[in-house]
Write a structure and sequence with these properties.
The structure is a homodimer. Chain A is α+β, with helices and mostly antiparallel strands. Chain A has one domain (30-92, 103-289): Beta Barrel (Cyclophilin). Chain A is built from five helices and 16 strands. Chain A has helices spanning 2-21, 58-70, 96-99, 201-205, 252-263, and strands at residues 30-32, 38-43, 46-52, 77-81, 86-90, 110-112, 119-125, 128-134, 137-143, 150-154, 160-163, 176-179, 192-199, 229-232, 243-247, 286-289. The first copy, chain A, is globular. The interface between A and B is large, with 54 and 53 residues.
């Protein structure tokens, strides 16, 4: 039995290599993350890796990357951490450091044409006509009256990274937040999402909450979680780099996994749930590689 | 100004006392949790309080309470903790301790008649015809063809406490799990939910994950989070008891808050989100009292 398994594994590996080597290959299961599009956030209690999304929010990614490379976030604190909602960090509000950063125009949605595609997940999701994935990012889609055209926007899910802002649409600068609770989908389309946690989400979940329930002891600001460092992975000394691959959401294997997940076709489901999928409740796998 | 505020406060207090004292009073904003219906879970890194739901799952609550009072869970570990999904604990699978506990029949849904009521939240939720709250618990509802009759069931949300089981419906005994990620609503109606976290959810979120991504270092089982103690709050020495009140989801004030939340009627929402609500994304407030 073991021998057969080994042969199959070898064959699969060969097929995998061939698929990756082909010129127009899109059907690879894993996608390697580029080191200059990945950020290493070092917290006192663990390491977190973020994949950036320049294809969706180029200006936010450019500014965040620049600030990261300047060491802007090193030593800043998560000052607004609400359990079940978000963990937000940035320099002291109104400080010289805070004011030194340019405001960004909102990047929350994009027009699509007939050449644009995504992996569909669910029609008539509570918040959108259609949900799906593109490059591992959860999104929503709304078709236009014009055939083949529409609008796409990234959705808030646990692990989503977005820029905080004031009341005005174009008022984000450097303060950012991670979603740490049930997806606050009502923020979709009115915030600039520019990345997602691909590794170490448990450490993001463990960031010290700053708000407590009424009647409870306040959390001392000295206990707020500090960012030890925020670095572009390509700037991290080689020995400390974390190399990752994430599931390719455009692969046929991912599509098959989605079909299976919708069917819940195993013995545990003695009664089948409705054949629907919450786009924020589909884990996109990550693996560490050398 | 202060004087007026004080008078108003006094009047409100009097009204509050009157309302609570009246026989059919339902319109109080806060509901005090009974100490014998509340469980104190002490983890190495913090204290967690659970409200039990005997009105929905009486046999599961009875068994969990009995086991808790026997000290059954003291020293057991969270052995299956998957980031974004659940934290599960219980005695060693197949051990004498494990086998000593009676199996429970599923308690996942109940029939309703015209005398039953709940606080509605959302029609045509992705997973159910209708969602809502009853006694602070998120639920789903499906009307029968017969007027006034229907079926209700509790839904999985972050903080939900349910009994784990094997493939058979009636195979739960002592192993339990907390939901720590995006609501796995596909488990609704096929698991017995019997409580929810009302305090210290951040500590549940910080339970050591036991599963890691492919290629990462395995977590040593000696690092798994241990339950220091699980006690019925009424059995806890008085000085260490945590007294809580939770928002009364049957109050008109809660209903008003839901209306406001749906409207998103403040300046931050320069563009209004769809007027829908995810039942798992409405925090039910808790406060500590003496």
């Amino acid at each position: 039995m073991k021998a057969i398994a080994k042969t199959l594994l070898t064959l699969t590996s060969l097929l995998f290599i061939n698929a990756c080597g082909a010129d127009n290959a899109t059907d690879y299961v894993w996608r390697k993350l580029a080191l200059n599009n990945t950020v290493l956030l070092t917290l006192p209690h663990g390491k977190v890796v973020i994949e950036l999304a320049p294809q969706f929010s180029p200006k936010h990614v450019a500014q965040f990357t620049e600030l990261t490379q300047q060491g802007f976030y090193n030593g800043t604190k998560f000052y607004r951490v609400i359990d079940g909602f978000v963990a937000q960090a940035g320099p002291k509000d109104g400080s010289a450091k805070d004011k030194s950063v340019a405001l960004l125009a909102m990047e929350s949605a994009w027009q699509t044409d007939k050449n644009w595609s995504f992996t569909p997940i669910q029609k008539q999701d509570l918040f959108a006509q259609q949900t799906g994935f593109k490059d591992g990012f959860a999104l929503a889609y709304q078709a236009d009256a014009k055939a083949g055209q529409g609008k796409g926007w990234l959705t808030h899910c646990p692990g989503t990274l977005a820029m905080a802002r004031g009341n005005e649409a174009d008022s984000a600068s450097s303060h950012f937040y991670f979603v740490i609770g049930q997806a606050p989908r009502y923020l979709d389309g009115i915030m600039s999402i520019f990345g997602r946690v691909v590794y170490g989400m448990q450490h993001v979940q463990a960031i010290q909450r700053t708000e407590v329930v009424e009647g409870d002891y306040a959390v001392d600001h000295r206990d707020f979680t500090k960012i030890i460092s925020m670095q572009l992975m390509s700037d991290v000394p080689k020995a400390e780099q974390i190399h990752l691959e994430v599931e390719n959401t455009e692969s046929s294997q991912f599509a098959e996994r989605v079909v299976k997940r919708r069917k819940r076709d195993n013995a545990f489901f003695y009664k089948k749930p409705p054949p629907v999928l919450d786009v924020c409740q589909i884990p996109i796998r990550t693996r560490r590689v050398k």
